[in-house]
Specification:
Blueprint lengths: L1 E6 L16 E2 L2 E2 H11 L4 E6 L3 H7 L5 E5 L7 H7 L1 H4 L5 E6 L7 H18 L5 E7 L8 E4 L5 E5 L13 E10 H8 L15 H8 L4 E5 L12 H21 L3 E2 L6 E2 L4 E2 L4 E2 L4 E3 L3 E2 L4 E2 L4 E3 L2 E2 L4 E2 L4 E3 L2 E2 L4 E2 L4 E3 L3 E2 L4 E4 L2 E3 L2 E2 L4 E4 L2 E3 L1 E3 L4 E2 L4 E3 L9 E3 L4 E2 L4 E3 L2 E3 L4 E2 L4 E2 L8 E2 L11 H5 L2
Parallel strand pairs: 1-4, 1-6, 4-5, 7-11, 12-15, 13-16, 14-17, 15-18, 16-19, 17-20, 18-21, 19-22, 20-23, 21-24, 22-25, 23-26, 24-27, 25-28, 26-29, 27-30, 28-31, 29-32, 30-33, 32-35, 33-36, 34-37, 35-38, 36-39, 37-40, 39-41
Antiparallel strand pairs: 2-3, 6-10, 7-10, 8-9
Helix pairs in contact: 6-7
């Protein structure tokens, strides 16, 4: 079987210069979901019809094994769009799947079941269907094409909402915009489609009427989930589709043995992976290619993007981790910020309002309060006190600070890079350090304290 994805429309109701199919759902273009669904259904030869914003669409699918076909008139209608790809299936003797690029809710299992149904009809009824259309029954079918059938269940025609009669509008079985056509019969009928008298467009749905008139058999296939047939025509439709996909992803992870509290508030993107027994609290966002190891806890309001979180890590509430690695059994937060290819070692603790930027922190390091660690290496079992700042920027370039193992950096110290502090070195609280501190040395840099009798009383009176 081959497939064509129709992605040439302008999407005027989106009121956007960007092609509609490139608007994102959970960080991925809408079209990406359609393509993955088609690929996961077992179809390998895939064409994509592009028109408005063609170069942007092609760039978005760069690296994908698809062929592109250009529709010269984006307002020409769905039949015109499919005709644009005719070179792909003109001489093809098999079945062709046709799906809209704005149908991200269709499941790959549905497409596989549609293919299976075609084979079963052919095997058990001795009938080769000319077309199969995905449908659903909606309580309110407004804005959807109505499916008109004969008494045997064959599709007589599919009528667009704006061209349906009063009686046809009462039909609540609607067109889902997913079709499988027998290619020789499709090529026979599609060039006979006439423009709509109201819009001038060539509707692909007109093919069903033409096939019926020729005596060909066409049927419907009911969607397992009515949400599958919901197209995305407006920004609000996009929001609803995103919510459906988001909940599907969360359900999959829950069924694989992960706990998700208040799933209505949790955001997990498609490329994220959870190893199992992960506990995710409300308002969490897991973005990009993030990987979460077993037995991790992700606290409320935390954001993790393109990062690796190893086994047994606890992320306290409202922490942000981007493009970094947290080793096993480390503890981060609350309100910590780890970024820019940083690594936090095993069993280390990065605590309240600590920011770590482009730094390597070894095992069992403690930086638990109000610190900035930038462009640094910190050896194992070192303690970073509250209020410590690694001054890594001289106004023109960044510099490195190297802190050895088992060192102690006292509270409110300022380390001015470039700097090296040796193993077992001790920096007294409140010190400004701008020279290397050898292994085992004590560094202290404080102005002398003056105590002036009764002067405090004078200041307060």
């Amino acid at each position: 079987m081959r497939a064509v994805i129709l992605s040439a429309g302008m999407g005027t109701r989106f009121k956007s210069e960007k092609p509609k199919v490139l608007h994102t759902i959970l960080g991925k273009p809408m079209l990406w979901y359609v393509l993955q669904t088609v690929k996961n259904s077992g179809i390998e030869e895939i064409g994509v019809v592009v028109g408005y914003g063609a170069q942007e669409v092609e760039k978005a699918l760069e690296g994908e094994a698809v062929s592109f076909y250009y529709q010269k008139n984006p307002k020409g209608g769905t039949a015109d769009a499919l005709i644009s790809s005719a070179d792909m299936w003109r001489s093809y003797e098999g079945y062709l799947l046709v799906i809209n690029g704005d149908a991200p809710l269709v499941k790959s299992s549905t497409l596989r079941n549609m293919q299976r149904y075609l084979r079963m009809v052919e095997e058990y009824e001795g009938i080769k269907l000319s077309a199969l259309v995905l449908t659903s029954f909606l309580p309110d079918p407004t804005n959807y094409g109505r499916v008109v059938k004969d008494q045997e269940g064959n599709v007589v025609k599919i009528v667009e909402e704006k061209e349906a009669s009063f009686e046809e509008k009462k039909i609540n079985e609607v067109n889902g915009g997913v079709y499988i056509f027998y290619a020789p019969h499709l090529i026979e009928c599609i060039f006979c489609v006439k423009p709509s008298e109201r819009t001038g467009e060539l509707y692909l749905t007109e093919v069903f009427k033409l096939m019926y008139e020729k005596g060909y058999k066409t049927r419907t296939f009911m969607a397992e989930d009515p949400a599958e047939i919901l197209g995305v025509n407006t920004r609000w439709d996009l929001a609803l589709a995103e919510n459906v996909i988001r909940l599907r992803i969360l359900q999959q992870w829950a069924e694989k043995g992960n706990t998700i509290h208040q799933p209505e508030s949790v955001w997990i993107e498609p490329d994220v992976s959870l190893k199992g027994n992960v506990e995710i609290h409300p308002d969490v966002m897991l973005i990009g290619k993030t990987k979460i190891g077993r037995n991790c806890v992700i606290g409320k309001g935390s954001i993790i993007e393109n990062s690796l979180i190893e086994e047994g890590v606890v992320i306290e509430p409202y922490s942000v981790i981007r493009n970094s690695k947290i080793m096993s059994k480390a503890r981060i937060g609350p309100f910590a910020h780890i970024r820019d290819q940083s690594t936090v070692g095993e069993e280390s603790q990065i605590g309240n309002f600590v920011e770590v930027k482009k730094s390597l922190i070894e095992k069992d390091v403690k930086a638990k309060h109000l610190a900035y660690i930038g462009d640094a290496y910190i050896g194992s079992s070192t303690n970073i006190g509250a209020g410590v700042v690694f001054a890594n920027f001289d106004g023109k370039k960044k510099h490195q600070t190297h802190v050895g193992s088992n060192a102690f950096i006292g509270s409110n110290s300022l380390l001015i890079a470039p700097l090296k502090i040796g193993d077992f070195a001790f920096v007294a609280g409140g010190s400004v350090v701008n020279k290397d501190v050898p292994e085992g040395y004590l560094a202290i840099s404080r102005p002398s304290l003056k105590l002036l009798k009764d002067k405090g009383r004078e200041k307060l009176t």
